[in-house]
Design a protein that fits this description.
The structure holds two protein chains of two kinds. By secondary structure, chain A is α+β, with helices and mostly antiparallel strands. Chain A has helices spanning 2-19, 45-54, 103-114, 132-137, 166-170, 180-186, 240-248, 264-269, 273-276, 300-307, 312-320, 341-344, 352-361, 381-398, 409-419, 440-443, 457-468, 472-489; strands spanning 25-29, 59-61, 68-70, 73-78, 84-89, 147-151, 154-158, 202-208, 212-217, 231-235, 254-255, 277-290, 325-326, 373-378, 402-407, 423-429, 493-505, 509-510, 525-526. Chain B contains twelve helices and no strands. Chain B starts with a helix and ends in a 7-residue tail after the last helix. Classes of the chains: A alpha+beta, B mainly alpha.
Chain lengths: 529, 306
């Protein structure tokens, strides 16, 4: 009942504002129906964008630096070993049903993510907490999970290992406090507009599935005074060309991703659109993995030859056209542990002569005698163009015959798991801002994301030490050594480029650019226009 | 006739069983699963939790029976992709939109295509005939993926007559309905023309003329009715086709219909949605074919159902 009053109040405020002609509505495209608005369950960026605005997080992040900042937790501290983290919550945050947001809600959220019956795909990210993995696997109890709530406004996490990066995990959706009362009352349907109880800057005013979703400013949000945009009208237009047409016809205020490649040259040449265009960094890296067990890729010099023969800048200028940054290392800029491979000379820059020499050293001068190499990607027009460009370079410079193959995504993942081709496309985007998410989570020998099947004990020891070390300087050095190992010494894959997100924003929208691709509309404004 | 209908309805049972079995075997044979949508494979314990939640750890025969029971009791279970929504929620909310769009498209196709074909046949080798057939040829040849954005460019961006996309008002229906209708319109026009040209050479038409009937009566009462038999043959499946949605048209115009779900369910390996939509579409096709067969008797009294 309280929530209904709040929605009514929010709507009344908007109508009131309408009457005075000052309503601020942001027209946004979500591109698809959010699969879930349940923070413990959502796995995709569309859902995360909305949940970020509906629920105040335990902690939050700065947009451009992604540095962790207070949200419901106004401060936090940790013990000397960085294995016990204590978050102190503000006492004025409340749910839209009028109850207070307390440490019990935060604990309930983390435990619900871990509960086997929730079947959350992101549960593993909390396995750093004591007893979490056992509880999720059904071998441990809920009571043994290392989360304590000494009082309604204090929550404590006990970790298995020292983890200086824990606040980066705490800012994730899986730790966002969720309303136990609504979840227990409505079950899976608790996220429907009529049932949902939230705590963030916006209320879910309306959700017409697969059509549109309206967020309305939440009058009970603890920091409502700073929220300038009254409502956000989200369409769900999936087709990039249609999205572009809607932006040009004034039906959208922002395009935050997926500007059609065909329009890029026109946008850059157009006097109006070029001013509205901006490439924002995105915390993702595009790579070509090697299956180093399959000949001739088992010869490191063949791998080095291929890695040295990728003209990344030309690829970006002529094919991608989105101001991406060439990558010679794995961890992308903005992540703790990033090293500038291009500046430091780590990895393999484009050098056709060196590539020819590596190939000759491998015993295949001019590519003579080298068997055909299979290059595989998951079916997509964009990946196809990249594959054709790179294969053309290998064929023309090195005389290598390349068999380009594509497979539908589900089939492709299965192929890469079971019998990866010699060269295959993969990407990775940050879950949190630490090198652990890039090195341990991807290239550690036992990682499920290690499609290269990279298995070097020396590397494993490095990333384990980096994971547990409280000494940040030491960790940086360890991650640098790890980069040198995978991207240069063992040439386990080819880093191709660091992603950017190409955006168009109407001049009357005052905005920030989120490095994590979760925009804070509560920090935006719309000027009179 | 009643016996014919009963016989055909009974035949639906093995058809549905065959379609459901084939669909089940095919979807389970395709590599990949419903929970491997990103580069990150799930760790075994989490995959086991998901399998347990959705009964994917059951033996295959039990899963099959579960889907079939769900279909006939209209309790189709949760979607794997949209976890807060059940499959019947999706069908109940999205299918009416698709039906609305499909009906409009079908009416446009029928009401424009058939008269165009008749006119072409009656004025054979005239400018009208050639013009109509060029339109029909273009309609068959231009795919919706090209026609849709072209219509948006002309009628939404340049002339500003209609909205670019999304759904909600009658104006939103026009462009997607025309895009969806064009292919069927062209087919109706071509088949009506060919059929009319064949019928007007029949002896009973010459008899009608010999009796001194006016040309319009000959064409409309005698020729047109008989020429409709081939048209009705394709109209049934075409109707089933348009009311089950089009991925391309729904995607271009952001129509919240069922067509997108059908295709995305296959990509996402959303098994309950695949099973439900496939069976529903199979039932529709069977039903429409039955209606087509029944229409033959109405259009041509010589046809009997025994």
């Amino acid at each position: 009942m309280k929530r209904m009053w709040l929605v009514a109040l929010a709507v009344a405020l908007i109508f009131g504002v309408c009457a005075t002609g000052q309503v601020k509505t942001l027209y946004w495209n979500l591109a698809s129906e959010p699969p879930s608005l349940d923070p413990n369950i959502a796995t995709d960026t569309t859902s995360h964008q909305i949940t970020k605005m509906l629920f105040a997080g335990l902690v939050d992040v700065e947009d451009e630096t992604a540095a962790v900042i207070p949200d419901i937790a106004k401060s936090w501290d940790f013990d000397a070993a960085t294995t016990t983290w204590t978050f102190h919550l503000r006492d004025d945050a409340q749910w839209t049903d009028g109850t207070k947001v307390t440490s019990a809600d935060a604990k309930y959220s983390a435990l619900r993510t871990l509960a086997p019956e929730t079947a959350s795909e992101y549960a593993a990210i909390l396995f750093v907490i004591q007893g979490a993995e056992a509880y999720n696997a059904g071998t441990g109890s809920r009571e043994d999970v290392g989360i304590m709530t000494p009082d309604p406004y204090t929550i404590q996490f006990k970790l298995n290992v020292a983890a200086g990066y824990f606040p980066s995990i705490a800012q994730l959706w899986v730790c966002t406090p969720v309303p136990q009362q609504a979840i227990e009352k409505y079950g899976d349907a608790w996220t429907e507009a009529a049932n949902i109880v939230t705590s963030g800057p916006y209320i879910l005013g309306e959700w017409v599935h697969d059509d549109h979703l309206i967020l309305v400013k939440n009058p009970s949000y603890y920091d409502v005074a700073t929220v300038k945009i009254d409502q956000v009208y989200c369409t769900m237009v999936n087709e990039a060309s249609t999205q572009m047409a809607m932006y040009e016809s004034g039906r959208l205020d922002v395009i935050n991703a997926d500007i059609p490649l065909e329009d890029m040259d026109r946008i850059k040449a157009d006097p109006v659109l070029s001013k509205e265009f901006r490439s924002a960094p995105q915390l993702c890296t595009y790579r070509y993995g090697f299956n180093a067990k399959k000949p001739p890729l088992d010869n490191i010099n063949v791998r080095k030859a291929l890695a040295s023969c990728v003209d990344r800048q030309s690829l970006i200028d002529n094919v991608l056209k989105g101001n991406q940054k060439p990558a010679q290392t794995w961890t992308c800029p903005g992540i703790f542990g990033y090293v500038d491979g291009v500046a430091l000379g780590i990895g393999y820059p484009y050098d056709p002569e060196a590539a020819k020499k590596y190939l000759a050293d491998a015993g295949y001068p001019g590519g003579v005698g080298l068997p055909e190499i299979t290059l595989m990607y998951n079916t997509s027009q964009g990946h196809a163009k990249i594959a054709q460009f790179i294969a053309k370079g290998w064929q023309e410079t090195l005389g290598i015959k390349v068999n380009i193959v594509n497979q539908e995504w589900g089939v492709y993942l299965n192929t890469c798991h079971t019998d990866a081709p010699q060269v295959f496309r993969m990407g990775w985007c940050a879950d949190y801002l630490d090198g652990n998410n890039w090195m341990y989570d991807v290239f550690y020998s036992a990682s499920g994301n290690n499609y290269e099947k990279y298995n070097v004990p020396e590397f494993d020891a490095l990333v384990l030490e980096a994971q547990g070390s409280p000494d940040q300087e030491r960790r940086l050095e360890l991650y640098k050594q790890a980069e040198i190992m995978i991207a240069e010494r063992d040439c386990a894959f080819i880093p191709i480029y660091f992603y950017t997100r190409n955006t168009l924003t109407k001049p009357y929208v005052v905005r920030t650019f989120s490095a994590l691709n979760q925009e804070h509309w509560n920090r935006w404004d719309i000027l009179p226009h | 006739m009643l016996e014919f209908i009963v016989r055909r309805v009974l035949w639906t049972i093995p058809v549905i069983l065959l379609v459901s079995s084939l669909t089940f075997v095919l979807m389970k044979s395709v590599p990949g699963g419903p929970f491997s949508s990103t580069e990150r494979p799930l760790i075994p314990a989490i995959k086991a939790n998901l399998d347990a939640r959705y009964h994917l750890d059951w033996p295959l025969w039990k899963q099959y029976l579960q889907y079939m029971k769900g279909f006939f009791t209209w309790d189709l279970g949760p979607s794997y992709t949209y976890r807060a929504r059940t499959v019947e929620d999706i069908l109940n909310q999205q299918w009416p939109v698709t039906i609305q769009l499909g009906l409009c498209a079908f009416l446009i196709a029928l009401c424009v295509g058939v008269p165009l074909g008749v006119l072409s046949a009656v004025k054979q080798n005239s400018l009208i005939d050639h013009g109509s057939m060029v339109v029909a040829m273009l309609g068959v040849s231009i795919p919706a993926i090209a026609l849709g954005p072209f219509l948006i460019w002309i009628f939404a961006l340049k002339l500003k007559w209609f909205p670019v996309a999304t759904w909600g008002t009658p104006a939103h229906i026009v462009l997607p309905a025309v895009t969806l209708a064009t292919f069927y319109l062209a087919r109706f026009a071509r088949i009506t023309r060919a059929s009319m040209l064949q019928v007007v050479r029949e002896e009973y038409i010459q008899t009608a003329r010999a009796k001194g009937l006016r040309e319009i009566v000959v064409n409309v009462k005698h020729a047109f009715r008989n020429a409709l038999i081939p048209v009705s043959t394709i109209a049934g499946p075409a109707f089933a086709d348009v009311i089950t949605g089009s991925l391309v048209v729904e995607r271009i115009f952001a129509v919240p219909g069922l067509g997108r779900y059908y295709v995305m369910a296959i990509t996402n390996r959303d098994y309950p949605v695949i099973m439900a939509t496939t069976l529903l579409f199979a039932l529709l096709i069977v039903f429409m074919n039955l209606l087509v067969d029944l229409s033959y008797g109405v259009l041509d009294p010589r046809i009997r159902y025994n």
